[in-house]
Amino acid sequence: MVRRVAVVGAGISGLAATKCCLEEGLEPTCFERSEDIGGLWRYTEHVEEGRASIYRTVFTNSCKEMMCYPDFPFPEDHPNYMHNARLQQYIRDYAKHFDLLRHIRFKTVVTNIRKRPDFCATGQWEVVTQRDGKEETAVFDAVMICSGHHIYPNLPLDHFPGIEKFKGCYLHSREYKEPEKFRGKRVLVVGLGNSGCDIAVELSTVASQVYLSSRSGSWVLGRICDHGYPWDMVIITRFRTWLDSILPKSVSDWLYVRGMNQLVKHENFGLMPVNRTSRKEPVLNDDLLSRITCGVVLIKPDVKEFRETSVVFQDGTVQDDVDVVVFATGYTYTYSFMEDESIIKSRNNEVTLYKSILPPHLEKPTMAVIGLVQSYGSAIPTADLQCRWTIKVFQGQCTLPPVSKMMDDIDEKMRMKLQWYGSSTTLQTDYITYMDELASAIGAKPNVLKLLVTDPRLALEVFFGPCTPYQFRLTGPGRWSGARRAILTQWDRMLRPTRTRIAPDAPSLFPISAMLGVLFLPLLLLLALLYW
Question: What GO CC terms are in its UniProt record (predicted)?
Fold first, then answer.
């Protein structure tokens, strides 16, 4: 029986793991190397070893209704997208509300995790920690690794010939904190991801010129979508996911490209993705297009080589007098505290995890990696559901298939990723499909057909409305009594922080609608007559 659980990291995933353990009567001990909770979202003036790092002006890319813990909504007056400091306060409020802090050991570094000699029989682990220079070893029945994947920067200098000759300075985006030190300089940002675009836009307010280099292009979305609503509340719905699943891929691809290119012709800005039908996560940025339009950010192709003071791009163009290069080239994920890292990276040094959580080859399923997945959805509700599923596996209440079946499932998912995202090793997955897969296994997936009979109003909101985290607390283990009300009032909470002035309603479109109805009424009557 699993009783004592070691949780590595007290970020958003580690807090979810600790809370879910407590819900199921387990005894979690959470190890956090720093002096505070929050993980990635805890801003510090300087980069700290072994911790994720963000810049001062980071705002969330997920709306508050889509990114909250599913049984702990944000306060109504909080903005839909918020600064990292406000999110950090929400995380602290969550920990305080569920009394999680007393289960966390701060300033404690996990240095080694290894199987016990009798692991095949007990599934237990030895966890070695260090605090104030003192080492301690403890035995746990299970381990949940919640250390995140934004710690170790990917800086592929081998792919950039001549970088050793470059006389300017270069840094990884992890080291970037604020723009002032780049005032008046010419800056090249390599990488068209969220961080690269944020940094390029921010630098464009102080630098003399910013160049943004992209190898393959990207779709760019703003945080607000149709009629000014949050993009994720409009796009991430069960109806859209269902439509995607029944349409031929060629039709689905056409609709996807048309939707992404509807407001802005990306080719006019040099942003059009090489593989335009790939469902690779788009860039979320409200200002990039305007900065390109104003000429303060110039989009460039991939870097071919560096020279002493200039950069040559793949199209043959040369940019002289470049002072600084910021490599926004992502992160690698490694688990240096694992005595045997092949437990997680079991094939070709790739992460091979069942349901993106469990190492499939363990004799006893008592280790889980939480948060090693990306999607259109937010990390917080994803981690919460991963933890609930994991604990049911630990308790033996969620039966796993044989190893061969788990490996077949992993291979099938990799084939699907190659088809939809252009890479078999990407962490990306479809949010609703993945969440429903986990929820179904523990009885937490909302049954829309049943709701249609018992609660039609809720059923329609669940299916056609945004797939908010509350949906996964309507039923099953960890059911939250406030979930139904939270779903039915989610649009009200979304509007609350923006309707800060009483404004007249927009003119009604009823006359046009009525006219269309009159025009189509004879046609409808004719069709009914023919059918009869």
Answer: endoplasmic reticulum membrane
Beta bridge partners of 237: 466
Tokens 């007249």 sit at which residue? 504
Which H helix or E strand runs over 382? helix 379-394
Q: Which structure tokens are listed for 169? A: 């300075």
Would the pLDDT of 346 be above 80?
Answer: no
| Phi, psi (rounded to 5 degrees) for 421 | -120, -5
Tokens of 129: 């920690």
What is the distance between the alpha carbons of residues 223 and 113, in angstroms, rounded to a whole number?
A: 41
In Å, how far are 176, 283, 445, 493, 499 from 79, measured between CA atoms?
Answer: 26, 21, 29, 9, 11
Kindly calculate the radius of gyration of the chain based on its CA atoms and give it in whole angstroms. 25
Give the span between the Cα atoms of 396 and 367, in whole angstroms.
13
- Tens digit of pLDDT for each residue in 499-516? 998 888 776 555 555 555
pTM: 0.91
pLDDT tens digit string along 464-497?
999 999 999 999 989 999 999 999 999 999 999 9
Cα diameter, the chain: 86
Distances, alpha carbon 404 to alpha carbons 145, 297, 345, 411, in Å: 24, 50, 17, 10
Name the one residue in this structure whose structure tokens are 């996990």. 110
The pLDDT of residue 460 is above 70? yes
Report percent pLDDT > 90 for the chain. Answer: 78
**Beta strands 209-213; 331-332: pairing state:** unpaired
Mark 179-209 as b/e (b = at least 16 C-beta within 10 Å): beebeebbbbbbbbbbbbbbbbbbbbebbeb
Residue 435: both structure tokens together:
């969440």
Query: What pLDDT, on the 0 to 100 scale, is given for residue 511?
Result: 57
Give the integer Cα–Cα distance in Å for 526 and 506. Answer: 35
Measured from the Cβ of residue 464, the count of other Cβ atoms closer than 10 Å reads 12
E strands in 69-179 = 104-105, 109-115, 125-131, 134-140, 142-145, 152-153, 169-172
**Phi and psi torsions of 470, nearest 5°:** -60, -25
C-alpha span between 55 and 44 (Å, rounded): 8
Among all chains, which residue has been given the structure tokens 């979305």? 221
Distances (CA, A) of 280 to 62, 96, 253, 273, 375: 16, 36, 13, 10, 9
DSSP 411-441: HHHHHHHHHHHS-SS-SB--HHHHHHHHHHH
